[in-house]
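Supplementary Text 2. Reproducibility record for the structural model of the 74-residue chain.

All settings were left at their defaults, and a single model was retained for analysis rather than an ensemble. We include the record here because the model underlies the residue-level annotations in Supplementary Table 4.
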Amino acid sequence: MEDYDVKALRWCKSSGSEESNCVEVAITPDRVYIRHSQDRAGKILSFTYGEWQAFTAGVRNNEFNLDISPRNDS
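Retained model, structure tokens:
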């Protein structure tokens, strides 16, 4: 992680998040950080604002929709 102390970051979680399946976000002047809310000592993803904007635009445009319907291979 860059020059930021993880403990000093202000982590926020969506009020609509479920108890166990959610992420927390911390925003600094130059980065967006993401972590799993139930594994606060675990890995932290770090994005530039441009990367974050591209990702959220892709989500809004359904670029990441996966076909997760059950397959019947029999």
